[in-house]
Amino acid sequence: MSLQPVSEEFVPQGLQEEYEADDSVVRRRVFLREGSFHETMLRRVTPPAREGLAPSEVFWDEWLEGPAPVSAGPDVTVVDLFSGCGGLSLGASEAIRATGKNPKHVFALDNNFDALEVFRTNFSGTEASQSDVNDLVPGEIGDSPGLEERRLARNFEGLDLLIGGPPCQGNSDLNNHTRRADPKNLLYLKMVRFAEVVRPRHVLIENVPGVMHAQKGVVHTAEKALMQMGYHVSHGILNAAQLGGAQARRRHILLASRVHSDVSVDRLADDMSKAPRPVLDAIARLGESKGGSVWNTSAKHYAQNERRMKYMFEHELYELPDDQRPDCHRLKPHRYQAVYGRMYPHLPAPTITAGFGSTGQGRFVHPLEPRTLTPQEAARVQGFPGWFNFSPLPGRRSLQQMIGNAVPTMIAYTAAMELVR
Description:
Layout: E1 16-21, E2 25-31, E3 37-43, H1 55-65, E4 75-81, H2 87-98, E5 102-110, H3 113-122, E6 127-130, H4 133-136, H5 147-155, E7 161-164, H6 188-198, E8 202-207, H7 218-228, E9 232-239, E10 250-257, H8 265-271, H9 279-283, H10 303-314, H11 327-330, H12 375-382, H13 396-404, H14 409-420
Parallel strand pairs: 4-5, 4-7, 5-6, 7-8
Antiparallel strand pairs: 1-2, 2-3, 8-10, 9-10
Helix pairs in contact: 2-14, 6-7, 12-13
């Protein structure tokens, strides 16, 4: 397929958005680089989770509840490598729509079958491949393209936006085994090789903050290579809570553009700042955990963990005392105070990981009930709207993995907006 790029060229200026709300509608205005703005209007169909919400909070509440938005305007073509179930594509899509264009997802790649099935369900018409990225771009940065890569360049000629979140477990501070030296960390550079072969207008790469310290210096290597290709590059940390999310999740973002010379991740945190959302705001409308589906029930726990959760509620605690913990915490000093903990209802959730169904892997106990979060609740904390379709539902473990590994919508939306506005 030969893709046509978006033709507009913009005059650089700061990124701005405004929100207004009345009793019937809420509006978002995004100011574009040429000085005009695009307005998105949503009808108010849901009661507020609490009184005194800012217009931006009302807008995103309505967006989360649906219906699914409809796109118009010129196409912006998107390729998502390491796509997972589509969290990064979801946020990028809304950024594209916010600027008056239509997101056109043309290709996605991931090696997780369940996650890719969810991606296909939500981004219909996308060519989705369960394969190894090394087969897609076998060459290294600086190599002459081989036959497969020349075919790739023809197929995606004119691509607007390349996005991807390479495997991050080896860079995570939670990984005590192969931290910084995991061979999968080098898959980060496959994003750069794809950009070298295809030459998209913009590139967005997402990872954990620890990627800055990864073996082989992949971020520095990526930045240097992209600049040599003619891209303007910026990278830094975005926190979902500082962008209006209900989760204190920090991610490293690298942005590269062949069009805009003023890309800046650091400036985004100020330009797009919104008040953090309490976790209870995010999940209150979902109601209580109900029997039946994996989707809206919490995981089962060993009897001792059931007792630990009930103990916190009986004593109105949010941290489990050491005398109630297992021996590995109780008998020696530890730094895992949040583990086995209960979420504070008035604060954003901690980082949602694939272990959100286990009390022993983080502060994942519901703020008001002695249980861990359901997959539906965890997805909402990550920023997945009600109209995002996770069916056909896989097993609990796979569902927890794809939700925990996803990119929060507000981070993806904010980062992509800097490129496509």
